Amino acid sequence: MTEANGNPGSPAGRFYLTTPIYYVNARPHLGHAYSTIVCDAVARRKRALGIETWFLTGTDEHGQKIERSAKLAGCSPQEFADRIAGEFRGLWDRLELTYDDFIRTTEERHVRRVQHLFATLRDRGYIYKGRYAGQYCVSDEAYVDGPPGTICPDCGRVTETVSEENYFFKLSAFERRLLEFYEANPGFMGPESTRREVISFVRSGLRDLSVSRTTFDWGIPVPGDERHVIYVWLDALANYATAIGYGSDDPKDQEKFRKFWPADIHLIGKEISRFHCVYWPAFLMAAGVALPRSVRANGWLLFDQGKMSKSRGNIVRAETVHEVLGADALRYFLLREIPFGQDGNFTFEALVQRYNGDLANGYGNLVSRVVNMVHKYCGGVAPEAGAATPAETTLRAHAEAAIAVFGPAFDQLNFSEALKSLWLLVAATDIYLTANAPWKKTPERSDAEHAALQARVLATAAEAIRVITALAYPILPDAAAKVWRQLGQGELADAAKNGFLIHLAWGGLQPGTKFGEPAPLFPRAEKDAVERMQKLEDENNRTAVEAASANGVSEATIAPAAPPAAAAIQAAEAPVPAPAAPAAAKKATEPLAPQASAAAPAPAAVEAPASVIEGAAHITIDDFAKVELRVAQILVAERVPKADKLLRLEVDLGYEKRQILAGIAQHYEPEKLIGRKIVIVANLAPRKMRGLESNGMLLAASLEGGAPVLAGFLEDVPLGARLK
Ligand code: MSP
Questions:
Q1: CB 34 less than 6 A from any atom of ligand 1
Q2: What pTM was estimated for this model as a whole?
């Protein structure tokens, strides 16, 4: 493999990096912000190293999942995508992320170039027509091996059966070439766990891949055969090339593509490595295009022990942290706290602890002390350090070690280590300052000696701060810009454009430089910071759920439809269990109470334990006919904030959609319910819980002493079908 493009010393001096493009079916949260912030930090450092950098992000807007989300929201897929793409872009702007281009896969430039790629693959003999009959996970937009009813191994949702004419890509032809490529380019993918997983996937054998669909429309038409739309992952992966000009006739675009391709880093989440490390290189090999230099997978941001995701209902929004502690605090926390490549827990408590410890009391306090003393004792002008004593030599050695360690660690995406080493310099500077106490006039020092000490110590400490600030800039751009001004170094944004990091070395602070006014950097977070953030999230959740229930628009990841659920996969109980008398005690003529709770025996359609049936009074067929049992499919399942047991479900009855609240949250993960076909009591009187209306009830077998089990079907059943 060629030397990584754009690394210092690389002849090309260019660097191209990309984030995954985000699905527009859910609003941006911290999990998405994480990848984008990592890329922003890398891009800022590369630019500050004088490397011409291109940082691409964007949104993934086609496919069945988005089409269904839009339908559920009652608008066109384009309107739906416009809205959510706007939210992503708006958030990146608010966080001042320095992307160079934001690609949307519905843009004309992308559509045409993807068609060009498809035609190229076909012309080169790598695409043929066939028939796909198998399982498909709409949530992951991925083909899954197995019989009908198979659960997607990645997300745990029920897959759908697809049987249609498709175009196939000859992925099987690339098995050996891919393995050879991985072998020859050990740095192509990382971390090691990703590399192992991908290699073992390819070794287990590659089958040709279906790359078109005919049963829905929301995608890029196959050129020359518009009944088909191009498989959304082929469409999406191509963004990395189309955005910089691949497939364009315009010479300017072609020039740009030549300049920046191949990408230096595709930064991705670990769950999409197969698409990036297997399919994407194979498509490129087939098209005769150079392969990206590396794919790097980040781990997941966890909250409350689970992957942060809208369908789990455990997301935190970047806006909340931004509002309370600022964007730099968020950037610092994500890069310092989580070793890149591993999963990491996000808690407000840990965030505030890091903020106060490292930023407010650490770096911020150090800067404020030194800048204030330079104003107080040196007339606001950088003093002349004079001859170094061993203390200055030691601090300088610390700083030079930080410069030597930080860069390589950062460039390996080892941000946590890089920052750890830099904060050792913060601590060393603090210790140096305290040990030499330039504010303390001792009797044994003459005035001249004291002035010399003040000058030496403050000049040395200020120089250490300059080094810390220069290195920390990609992670703390806002604070670094303020400190740069306070140190009299001018505008850091301009310095970054001029590659100020190239020549970073000890001794850059010129004596006589006029310092700027001191300004607070990281005011200490008070005790209530955690509560404030929590409150902002709770308020947001509440408004979101209320808005969703009012409009029938889902706030959660929107569900795919699914084939018949394997029977009885999850447990259920009624929303608020009203104490129900055992059926045995009811009079023969008494109709089945519509408010029957999960504790009550399951209605006729679900077999109840013999012990419950024994001695049960009979009801007439007319009694039974009063209960309208129908087949429904769960489209959305999410936790109701502050209600441990409740889930808010949106179910599709075929003829209408409705909201049901179910007290089953303790028995399963909401996202695993999505797509499941269940039985509901459709004519139960509406009731309100936690301010939300519930329109119906799920049916489940109520097992003694155990979790209830949802009623389901082995065969496929149409939505809305009545159970009699
Ligand atoms: N659209 C595809 C990617 C196509 S790239 C050609 C997709 N979109 S996504 O919106 O579901 O996810 C985008 C990225 O966000 C993924 O890399 C995913 O890992 C990341 N994250 C979403 N939630 C996350 C966390 N909780 N933690 C860390 N990253 C996570 O997949």
A1: yes
A2: 0.78
